[in-house]
Amino acid sequence: MDQVCLRNVVQIIDKFSTMASESSDTVHPQGEADGDTLCETIMAIDMKESGQVGCAYYVAIEEALCLQEDIAMAGMELVETLLLHAQPTTVIITNRAPDKLIEYLESGAQRVDSDQSSDINGVYALRTVGSSEFNYNAGKERLLNLNSELFGPQSTFFTSVAEDDMDDAAGASHDGKQSKLMRLATHINLDSHLSIGCAGAVLNELQRRQAAKYLPDDPDAILAFRVRSIKMLSLADSMFANADTLAALQILSSESHPNGQMQGPDKSKSGAKENLSVYGLFKFLASTSQGKARLRQMFLRPSLDLDLIHERQRTISVLLRPENSQVLSSMVKMLRKVKNVKTSVLHLRKGVDLPSRIRSVKKGVWMALSRFALVSIELREAVRTLSGGENLAIASRVVNEIEPRDIVRVGEMIHSVIDFDQSMESNRTAVRRGVNAELDDLKHKYDGLDDFLSQVAARLAQVIPEWACEYVQNCIFYPQLGFLTVVSLNPETGRGNYEGEGLVGDIWETMFVNEGHVYYKNTMMKELDEQVGDIFCMIVDKEIEIIHELGTKVLGHEDAMIAASDLFGELDSFIALALGAERYRWTIPRMTRKNVVKIQGGRHPLQELVVPSFIANDCGIHGGCGARPEEDEDMSIDGEEVPNGPSMLVLTGPNHSGKSVYLKQVALIVYLAHIGSYVPAEQATIGLTDRILTRIATRESVSRSESAFSIDLRQAAFSMNFVTRRSLVLIDEFGKGTNANNGAGLMTALLDHFLSLGEETPKTLAASHFHEIFENGFLEEDDNLAFAHMAVRVDLETTDPENQVTYLFQLVPGRSTSSFGSICAAMNGVDSAVVDRAEALVLLLARNEDLQAACAKLSDEEERKLEEAEAVARRFIEMDIPTPPLRRGGMQRVTPDVDLFRHMLRDLVSPRRGSGSSP
């Protein structure tokens, strides 16, 4: 960029730096919108009975159509993940969709009779359309009919002579159907039949909405719901983590905003607030709305591309260099002034410079674009000064792809036309003087209206009667109403004290009454209206014309501004990751293709923030080598040998000892490493992991016709069906939802299944309280199986239950034989008698004694009461009870048979009871 251009930029920045700092730091794009249109995400989903899933969705704020590659045997878990990623506001399905898909989507859809939110973060409207809208050929035709610029520049295709002759005969042009089809195939996978059909359904929905909102000849209809870009998404290069995994690991978690005025109708709106989550640790560190969106996308789609992961790690490392600390701090301050240009451009296309929800010019479209143009050049220069930035992809893209001349040109055009000082005073967009001679002349006349109106009032005083002069106050000008004469109000009559009496043919028409004055339109005022006109409206009309011309010129640089905005969002997401790594004292992990997870001093990123101190733990497991061991030939990293370890680690130990936290922290470290982030560990070597499958949290809901145990079984079955040798499987107390015998059997079978996979064995971490599985040898010994437990210190001499067990939260090898459940119960307020009884039964179980006989044995208190009852019975037997006398009339008194009672009592207290057996 030449020196003249740079000096101009510096002057403009100095002019508006104070003005820019007065505005709010960040505004969510949804908050800037003047309606829900910009917040729309329209998704279409199709599924076959075999489980194959296709999906496409349109993001209004991005004006982008995204297609997901067809995935075979995916099931409802993938549908749930897609909904979580896209957060649609409308979901479209075919009327021939499988029942299980319809039932699942209906459970999370908006209802007419109630406001019911779904289990995932978002509530959507569910629409069912005919199956013809999901037709593959129809969808392909709709894609071909889109603007050809979406698929890049035209290319020359060579065909045979016969084909050329046929094309010539048919009058085919260079941009014919075959040419479009070939260019379309370079951007999307035409073999994804379901997704292309879904794309056709989405495009049809956009056309339907466009027709409903705009008239056929409305020029704005062309810009409404348009598609500027098409993206093909694939899960092949991303780690798979379904909604259960994201919820169990607390990667993303939103809640209603505590401020009632900021609460949206559901969690998908801007009224939602990020709860305690891993993403929430970084979200507040991002300065821009596009940076937060990019960061969320990174957290939802961890990468399996080692080159991309290493590039992100290098970027964070460069940003955290001590010599770059000042540059980093200045970039954060500049990013806080950057708004999402896409929202401003969309408003500009509609001709809206001050959206309805924005009351201040400082937050209007022109101020946002002006500030963006000014700050963009500063940011670009700051990136150029980064030490080591010349080797970073994001730095080179910011420097090379952002066109400074285009950005500066936009800023200069806006600065030369818009008068922000006058705009803020009048609370509307005003044009600077010197832009248009006609406008300047009108403004000059408008500014001189005060002196002119004084002269008009003096002329009027010469015409009206002398007695009326004290009642005629002055003459004023109101936009659209024109020139008016102000007369004092007579409170008795409610009319003016003077209404043109003595003036022949001059009718004084009352326009309105306000604050003790009556405003009249008379002959002189009408003449002024004709001669001078409505100056203010003329000024506004001329300014609208000039601003419209300015908007047309600015939109000519739309692509350059949007590209710069997206790059700054990506840069902002990297800065957030760097600031988080520095803030939480995380370290860079070493990534490898070796199927291992080796962690030293690992910590849970959330747990360590809410406890006074956190005990770090190690982990070392490896997965199967697969049918092609050469894929794992990368046995060392930086010259350090990576040792092998077990494929499965089973944790036992007391409740509250930290087993679940340990499982989650290992998974989170693996997950963060695939994002490209630093991790909470002293050292970590992480092999590429394609899936994280969990059986940890049971997400129950009244909208699901499933019990807690059936949900656990479904999660376990999904892990078994979709596991690979590069997967990480977490199992926490599986089987606890049924009786102990069945639960132990299910847990044993699940662990044995993973161990039996041989070379395809996944990396597995499990926690269980079913000690009988290991004590009785139900799970055979295996080289890939290792045991560990969380250490505790037990002091049985103390009488205080809370001091009997001290949790050390330290992982040590070997098994634990007790869960200390009774002590945990006492610590949580369970009655001591219940705890003592439970401990006695546990000891009996450990000795394999008969619980039925033990439970039938009487307690000391019951023995004492029984002895007292026996003594009473013996005394009763020894008593001589006479026979009752006859009643009058010869009838005997009806009494119990005493001899029968004596006989029964003798049997009960006979010496046979002396054997000690309980009755």
Automatic annotation (TrEMBL):
GO terms for molecular function: ATP binding; ATP-dependent DNA damage sensor activity; mismatched DNA binding. Residues 841-879 form a coiled coil. Residues 727-743 form the DNA mismatch repair proteins mutS family domain. GO terms for biological process: chiasma assembly; mismatch repair. SMART domains: MUTSac, MUTSd. CDD domains: ABC_MSH5_euk. PROSITE patterns: DNA_MISMATCH_REPAIR_2 (PS00486). One of its GO terms (cellular component) is nucleus. It is found in: Chromosome; Nucleus. Its main location: nucleus. Keywords: ATP-binding, Chromosome, Coiled coil, DNA-binding, Meiosis, Nucleotide-binding, Nucleus. Belongs to the DNA mismatch repair MutS family. PANTHER family: DNA MISMATCH REPAIR PROTEIN MUTS FAMILY MEMBER, MUTS PROTEIN HOMOLOG 5. This is DNA mismatch repair protein MSH5. It comes from Phialemonium atrogriseum.
